[in-house]
Specification:
By secondary structure, this protein is of the alpha+beta class. 58% of the residues lie in helices and 7% in strands. The protein has helices at 9-21, 35-38, 59-69, 80-110, 121-141, 154-166, 170-177, 180-190, 193-197, and strands spanning 2-4, 27-29, 48-51, 54-57. α1 links the parallel β1 (2-4) and β2 (27-29). α4 (80-110) runs antiparallel to α5 (121-141) and α4 (80-110) runs parallel beside α6 (154-166). The protein is globular and about 45 Å long. The mean pLDDT is 96.
Length: 203
């Protein structure tokens, strides 16, 4: 059981991983800070997972469990260098890219805290310089089809929902249009069954 909403980039990533692994799962639509989320996550964040007696919160922990507990292709490589690179990208995503691109930028469009409910231009405009710099860095690293090595890893599944989300907003869409490697990555990933089956809802 995976509890989340697909609007959550982290929730979409772990669902994509389950699909790529070929693992059937039950998706329970669960909002942040709900009783169902708090049952597993001490602070009510999503996604959370339940598998028999095993309960887990935090997407990276869930992803590691899914990848190691079930048969199928591996998305955390055994090679120590490649494995470290996957962790490097997922950490950069959690600590830096998600904070700028989703928390400061996208959510200021979707869930603004302004009095009139309009997009929070102060937060949006304040995120643009950092977002442009971060996207340029990502583009410079994406010289192949994948973030790490020559095969799909969890680094790609972690990064894709965040980058895909940016296509739906004017400033980030304009930035990405001028970044051929990021644009190629988004297009390639969007065509995968795992991306098609987990397109974000708006609730």
């Amino acid at each position: 059981i995976i509890r989340s909403v697909l609007l959550s980039n982290f929730g979409q990533s772990v669902c994509m991983l389950a699909i790529e692994k070929g693992i059937p799962y039950v998706f329970e639509k669960t909002f942040p800070h709900s009783d169902e989320a708090k049952e597993i996550h001490p602070f009510g964040k999503i996604p959370v997972m339940k598998h028999g007696d095993v309960t887990l919160c935090e997407s990276n922990a869930i992803a590691h469990y899914i990848d190691s507990a079930f048969d199928g292709p591996k998305f955390f490589p055994k090679d120590p260098v490649l494995a470290a690179k996957v962790e490097e990208w997922t950490s950069l995503h959690v600590c830096t890219f998600d904070q700028t691109m989703i928390r400061k930028y996208v959510l200021s469009y979707l869930f603004p805290k302004t009095e009139n409910g309009e997009p929070d231009r102060v937060c949006i405009d304040g995120a643009l310089a950092d977002m442009e710099k971060q996207l340029a860095f990502i583009d410079s690293c994406l010289t192949g089809d994948y973030f790490v090595g020559d095969a799909l890893t969890y680094a790609d599944l972690a990064m894709y929902p965040t980058l895909q989300a940016l296509v739906g907003f004017p400033e980030s869409k304009a930035i990405i249009k001028n970044l051929p490697n990021v644009s190629r990555f988004i297009s390639n990933m969007a065509s995968r069954d795992s991306a098609q089956q987990t397109k974000p809802d708006m609730g």
